[in-house]
Amino acid sequence: MEIDRKREHMKFVIQRVSHAKVDADHKTVGSIDRGFLVLIGVGQNDTRETADKLIKKMVGLRIFDDENGKTNLALKDVDGSLLLVSQFTLYADCRKGNRPSFINAGKPDLAEELYEYIISECRKKVPKVETGIFGAEMEVTLANDGPFTIILDSEDS
């Protein structure tokens, strides 16, 4: 199967949450209160520079309500936290048949390296950053506040 060059770009699915947690092997491995649950998909040609662009955009998003009820505050303004979860299934290609193809997802070594890089860079900018476990079977529980969900795609940034 040929690689679709238009589809191999980093994706962040950001959900504004009042709380969220991720469990692996029936044990909580990451948990936050107010902040963002971020599902991270890495494409085949993504780089640290790609990640830097999306991290900057994500931490600057002004999607929390101010005192007037306007979405005008960023994560830092509300002492928000991050819960970062790697999710290659963001690259599901369902155009042919009923079984998704994941050929456009980044290879595991690259994806894990960039996921760890994203975690380390976010920890420089946000006081509390929790994570899932790369490659593990996980259960994510969240209360989407709003609901409010934003998709950042490096192709669009």
Automatic annotation (TrEMBL):
One of its GO terms (molecular function) is D-tyrosyl-tRNA(Tyr) deacylase activity. One of its GO terms (cellular component) is cytoplasm. Keywords: Cytoplasm, Hydrolase, RNA-binding, tRNA-binding. Gene3D superfamilies: D-tyrosyl-tRNA(Tyr) deacylase. GO terms for biological process: D-amino acid catabolic process. InterPro entries: Daa-tRNA_deacyls_DTD, DTD-like_sf. Pfam families: Tyr_Deacylase. Its EC number is 3.1.1.96, 3.1.1.-. It is found in: Cytoplasm. The keyword tRNA-binding applies. It catalyses: a D-aminoacyl-tRNA + H2O = a tRNA + a D-alpha-amino acid + H(+); glycyl-tRNA(Ala) + H2O = tRNA(Ala) + glycine + H(+). Coiled coil: none annotated. The keyword GTP-binding does not apply. A motif (Gly-cisPro motif, important for rejection of L-amino acids) lies at residues 146-147. SUPFAM superfamilies: DTD-like. An aminoacyl-tRNA editing enzyme that deacylates mischarged D-aminoacyl-tRNAs. Also deacylates mischarged glycyl-tRNA(Ala), protecting cells against glycine mischarging by AlaRS. Acts via tRNA-based rather than protein-based catalysis; rejects L-amino acids rather than detecting D-amino acids in the active site. By recycling D-aminoacyl-tRNA to D-amino acids and free tRNA molecules, this enzyme counteracts the toxicity associated with the formation of D-aminoacyl-tRNA entities in vivo and helps enforce protein L-homochirality. PANTHER family: D-AMINOACYL-TRNA DEACYLASE 1, D-TYROSYL-TRNA TYR DEACYLASE. Belongs to the DTD family. Homodimer. A Gly-cisPro motif from one monomer fits into the active site of the other monomer to allow specific chiral rejection of L-amino acids. This is D-aminoacyl-tRNA deacylase.
